[in-house]
Amino acid sequence: MSFYLFLTLLLLSSGCYYLGRRRAFTVAGDHVRNLHSLPSYYGAYTALWCGLPALLVFAAWTALQPSIILELVTNALPPELRTLPPGRLDLVLNDIKNLVNGNIVSSAPDPAILAAADHYRNLQLIGNAALWIAVMSLAIAGAAHAWRAISPKLRARNRVEQVVNLFLVISSTIAIFTTVGIILSVLFESILFFGKVPISDFLLGLQWSPQTALRADQAGSSGAFGAVPLFAGTLLISGIAMLVAVPIGLMSALYLSEYATPKFRATAKPALEVLAGIPTVVYGFFAALTVAPLLRDIGTALGLQVASESALAAGLVMGIMIIPFVSSLSDDVINAVPQSMRDGSYALGATKSETIKRVLLPAALPGIVGSILLAVSRAIGETMIVVMAAGLSANLTANPLQAVTTVTVQIVTLLTGDQEFDSAKTLAAFALGMVLFVVTLILNIIALHVVRKYREQYE
Amino acid sequence: MNKPIAPAAPARDIKAIVNAGLAHRHAAERRFRLYGLVAISLGLAFVVLMFASIISKGYPAFWQTYIELPVAFDAAVIDPEGKRDPKVLENADYAALVRASLRSLFPQVEGRRDLRALYALASSSAPLQLRAAVLDNPTLIGSTQPVWVLASATVDTFVKGNIDRSLDETLRPIKDQDIAWVDKLRADDRLERRFNSILFNHGDSREPEQAGIRGALMGSFYTLLVTFLLSFPIGVATAVYLEEFAPKNRWTDLIEVNINNLAAVPSIVFGLLGLAVFINFFGLPRSAPLVGGLVLSLMTLPVIIIAGRAALTSVPPSIREAALGMGASKLQMVGHHVLPLAMPGMLTGSIIGMARALGESAPLLMIGMVAFIVDIPKGMFDPATVLPVQIYLWADLPERAFVERTSAAIMVLLAFMILMNGLAIILRKRFERRW
Amino acid sequence: MSTTPLEINTPLDGATTSSRASGNPLSSTQITDYDHRQTVGKITVDNPKMTCRGVNVYYGAKQALKNVSLDIGANEVIAFIGPSGCGKSTFLRCLNRMNDTIPGCRVAGEIRLDQEDIYDRSLDVVQLRARVGMVFQKPNPFPKSIYENVAYGPRIHGMVQNKAELDALVIASLERAGLLKEVEKRLEEPGTGLSGGQQQRLCIARAIAVNPEVILMDEPCSALDPIATAKIEELIDELRENYTIVIVTHSMQQAARVSQRTAYFHLGDLIEIGETDQIFTNPRHKLTEDYITGRFG
Fold this sequence. Notes:
The structure holds 3 protein chains of 3 kinds.
Chain A: H1 2-28, H2 39-76, H3 79-82, H4 86-100, H5 111-149, H6 156-196, H7 199-204, E1 208-209, E2 224-225, H8 228-259, H9 262-277, H10 280-302, H11 311-336, H12 339-347, H13 352-381, H14 384-389, H15 407-415, H16 424-457
Antiparallel strand pairs in A: 1-2
Chain B: H1 14-58, E1 63-72, H2 75-78, H3 86-91, H4 94-105, H5 112-119, H6 126-136, E2 144-150, H7 153-159, H8 176-187, E3 191-195, H9 198-201, H10 214-245, H11 250-262, H12 267-281, H13 289-313, H14 317-325, H15 330-359, H16 362-366, H17 387-395, H18 400-431
Helix pairs in contact in B: 1-18, 4-6, 10-13, 10-15, 10-17, 12-13, 13-15, 14-15, 15-18, 17-18
Chain C: E1 7-8, H1 15-22, H2 28-32, E2 41-42, E3 48-59, E4 62-73, E5 77-81, H3 88-94, E6 105-113, E7 116-117, H4 125-131, E8 132-135, H5 146-157, H6 163-176, H7 180-183, H8 196-208, E9 214-218, H9 226-239, E10 244-248, H10 252-258, E11 261-266, E12 269-275, H11 276-281, H12 286-292
Parallel strand pairs in C: 5-10, 5-11, 8-9, 9-10
Antiparallel strand pairs in C: 1-2, 3-4, 3-6, 6-7, 11-12
């Protein structure tokens, strides 16, 4: 429906381009040179006048129409329905919407609801018809305005360029809006959450059991929101991951940049980077179905108790995922160390490994630290591996053979499935999200700053 | 020489001193080199191990076991009144036909429990298949036809050799009598392995043998379509603005820092944004590819912008000067010269960004794209899931047949990623230009 | 010395070409005509520290150095001069096998240090470089403290037994490099914080801390101002007492000031070698003359 309107608008607009161009030729008389701009700019000018205002109205209308109609329908409901408590009213409205969309409704519908659904449908028809008329007349009016304005003196190119410039500027602010959106969305919900659970309990509490009871008299109804076990679990798994990724990634980068022949480098480097392209859900599957059982079997053989969702399995696989991240960042950093440093060391009779250990690594240290910080931030925010391979139980332990849970696992658990939006349980996910966002943001800012300073040093 | 010279370093034989330490130093050198080689080998071994583990688990899923049943299309069951009314035909008890057919193959089976086990040999989709056949061709009624129906997942798993026959009966999902039946079917040539087209043509299902990835693939397609339509133009516009038009001031610095940071924000945080803003604030439908695409395009934007800017900076300034020198406006200079030259680089970056978006699942869990959805989505507003999330959902299911299908879905996903990255590499090679 | 001193002083077969070329000294034909010419002047010395015979260097398929033979005497300063790309730096880097670090570089011929073939398989390049130190065109102190920069060589080679010995060695080396007075109070500060001239003297201190027999200097002053240059030149003069010094330089005045012998390279050929005074006052080869009189370079 609205798709066809959009298509019509598009067609109309491209027609206007053609007309505007023709018009430009007409007003120019014999000499196209008389025109201020090229004829195609007059076409674009007309098309923009035709399409743009209509499109804006179209978008605003589509966004507003449903809520206006809903408001009208609610007001027209019989009083006994209208005065229902908000929760019940929502259900009624939901039934009406389902009826309108032709879906099956749970129970036999009330005649009042049926009437309301009819009302709704009518309003929708009226609204859509009005939308068509409004958009089309605006498009035609815009096109007519542009048509009349076309004269050799009209600075069509400048006008068109202004619009394009505006588009560029707006596009570039989307990044800012995204950040603002993230901050606002986690902040608002977190503030609501901290209204229910004190922030100190959240950040310092040692108990995490977010299951709030349905009835007040149920056992364990309190719901504890002490996030320390989650932070500890996140750190444990990230720590294991870094123990795997940093030595392997760093040594690979050193080998590739200092020892490997160009031919070996040309094949091994992309092969290693394949690891970075594999979706995390695949790592999760690998961790849960291959690595975890393997570790458990090894543990049993050694007489150790290994949980089937051990931190070790998740950490190991996460480490594998991060290897290429560490190695390619370190590779950049190591290659940024000037050759003259290596020459200076070789000229004194140092061997390659002595040069690497005593000159290259100290020189590249800030850059390497920066890349490791970026890798840590990546590990902390990683979700799928831990969701699939780490546990749900919030154990406060440093034993990698036990199951722990992480911040991201809890966010996913709290937010998947049906949930009402303002329970402490759901809001807790946003508070965790805020902690995650803030921590990774700080790590990223520090890391990016360190790496940039490091690069400037050798430029 | 008026300056006193410090005494030379104690006269020692450097040769001897250096030689004394050489063996030790060269050993350290070799050791270090070995560490490097071991590290690389470990990394590469992981790649191989992962691919091997997934392929070995997943390739059987591309085949599927079928059983040939002699089905008597009994008119008394299908159409007792003989009017061939489609409504009657549609609602007839086809399952009874399947049961009767299985009984006819194994007449010696008796007792409710054993019979139920016998009926479980065929997939629950068999009656649907018979119904479709009858509706398609009502003349079948009254005749007896050999029909190939899907075997149940357990039978399929057993036939593929994934259940160890020598295990104790209580430890395996398939019992001794089932094995005997299957062996009999095999001996009668009533078992066949065929290409598993269901995997590619069906939506999700609770029954492994009927589960497919078509729904997830279409969901991924619509989601990526939205992502591309939004992130590519906006990303290119942002890159062009920042690289060609933006004044160097605090505001543009802020935008830059922002973009770099967004590139490193955990993906799940974008999911929270999508949930709070798109679903709760704007009231867009849950589980819809539209919302998934919106979230993923916000995630992909930084990648495209960064790649786009790199592509723009690689266009030499001389070309810009030449265009401006000819009297082109700045926008004409960009549109006619700079952008076309930078386009391959931008496309390469976008394809890589799209490949990443294709593999992304965490933020989509937040916006409800994890529901169990059987229908194949037909548009951007239909509830849908995407391929990686389908993998996540299947990975949770314990049946061996689902493990197999999960691995197969992973293989399909990886194939798409390889395809996209390969395309990006070809594009880069093809249009790579040295100035 | 068992080999007969070899003096080549044949009237050059290029005499005619040089007269023709004198009309147009910049023509390319004049330059190519001098390919495969034998070196003018006496290449041997009485007490050689290093002897080089028939050295050829290739970068991939390109030949960078053609059949170069010369001796480097003990405790002398020998200067290599010539226009850019003439192979003088390449030759210098052969003397401690720094060319090994350049991929695709191949060295043929014979270079001996105290009669020992330095390209022999049995010879360890680590040991060679400890004996033949090098100072580079651009000062390249490590991003460590001044002290650590100088201590680096002795440490890796295990030349000292304890901290006191190392301290003494560092101080002595800085003293001999004429840097001690300036940095005495700030040995723990990073070496990269020094001025360019100080950095270069730090690099010299770093090289002599290992107590090498030969020091190679690749245009050590080209990145420095005149005052810093003067200091380094003074230092080279002092170091001659204990070391053999090979210096590549772009500046003819510098060669004239610091060296006893000078070798002139041209497009990979060693054209002329002799006493510095003789080379600058009475060059025997037309190309040398053209170069030192500033016709090209």
